[in-house]
Design brief:
Radius of gyration: 21 Å
Number of domains: 1
Structural class: mainly beta
Largest sheet: 14 strands, antiparallel, barrel
Shape: globular
Order of helices and strands: HEEEEEEEEEEEEEEEEEE
Helix content: under 10%
Strand content: over 45%
Number of strands: 18
Length: 319
């Protein structure tokens, strides 16, 4: 009986997906990624190192009513491997994050979403609960046209250096032919996509990330420290749809203003607003990294139009 019920559930899900496959209202409920930069030069000292990142995420919305209001749940894992000097081995840092929130469709013209984003980020060598960070995001999507919506919101996280804030301003546009899609969540993320056919899409994308990891290994005379990642990555990308729901996403580009900075634990700032830092008199412990080539490969499972019709991709723009 259990096997029969499971088959019916799977068949129902496939029917729902096939029915909505031509729509552009979707959510990526599962994804894995790998990102790399090989032979990265240091700013002022000789030698090279590698910078590699990988992770996975599950993001599930649960519809509450006919208005398609929904509870949002997710869990993610991210890892960073980086060399702090030419002679040192790659340092491994990790983060585990949760997502819990709600999305409300006030009308066909207005949607608002609020999500809590707690996480633990460190090298996981000691008491990981001391590496806890708390953040959240609010974003509102509004507009009269079905294929064009504005976005306005804010992202906050208490990083290892202190308070970090970023506004979110953008829009979502889908052409009448459904070939051109523009999804902007500036200054965090942006993507312009064009469908060559049903299986192959191409375009350009941008991703700006700020995050921190506590590190309990001794480096440059400091027994406890933290690493701040601040990058701006510009890509050309290619999407390949193996099925309407399973896609491979290849991005190749250039990392601009690449920063992975090491500071002593407890060395904080007043507040950071995007790239602007108030009351920042921290002492930098490591050398910087030069800009350069970067690639990012991901595999995603996409579910179409299960919630939030006419509002585009509802996955959070913060990675």
């Amino acid at each position: 009986m259990r096997i029969f019920n499971l088959k019916k559930i799977i068949a129902l899900l496939l029917l729902i997906q096939c029915y909505f496959v031509e729509a552009q209202d979707y959510v990526d409920i599962a994804k894995v990624y790998y990102q790399g930069s090989h032979a990265v030069n240091f700013d002022s000292v000789p030698g090279t190192t590698g910078i590699f990142e990988y992770g996975a995420e599950i993001f599930i919305p649960l519809v509450l009513n006919e208005n398609t209001d929904a509870l949002l749940f997710g869990v993610g894992y991210d890892a960073l491997r980086i060399g702090l000097s030419d002679m040192s081995p790659l340092l491994s840092l990790h983060s585990i994050s949760l997502k819990a929130g709600i999305s409300l469709n006030h009308s066909s013209r207005l949607n608002s979403t609020i999500i809590l984003l707690p996480k633990i980020a460190s090298n996981f060598s000691e008491n990981i609960f001391s590496d806890f960070q708390m953040g959240g995001m609010y974003i509102s999507k509004f507009g009269k046209k079905e294929n064009f919506k504005y976005k306005l919101g804010i992202y906050y996280n208490y990083e290892s250096f202190g308070h970090f804030l970023s506004p979110i301003i953008g829009c979502y546009f889908l052409s009448k032919s459904k070939k051109t899609e523009i999804d902007l969540s500036l200054p965090v993320a942006a993507e312009i996509n064009y469908a060559l056919n049903k299986s192959i899409h191409c375009g350009v994308s941008f991703l700006s990330i700020t995050k921190t990891f506590n590190n309990n290994q001794s480096h440059f005379g400091q027994a406890k420290n933290y690493i701040t990642k601040s990058t701006n990555d510009l890509y050309a990308h290619l999407r390949i749809y193996f099925t309407p729901q399973i896609l491979f996403y290849a991005q190749f580009g250039y990392s601009i203003g690449r920063n992975f900075k090491l500071y002593e634990s407890g060395d904080k700032i007043g507040v950071a607003l995007m790239l602007f830092k108030i009351d920042d008199d921290r002492t930098l412990l490591n050398d910087g990294y030069q800009d350069g080539f970067i690639y990012r490969l991901s595999l995603r499972y996409r579910f179409f139009k299960i919630i939030f019709p006419k509002f585009g991709n509802i996955s959070t723009p913060i990675v």
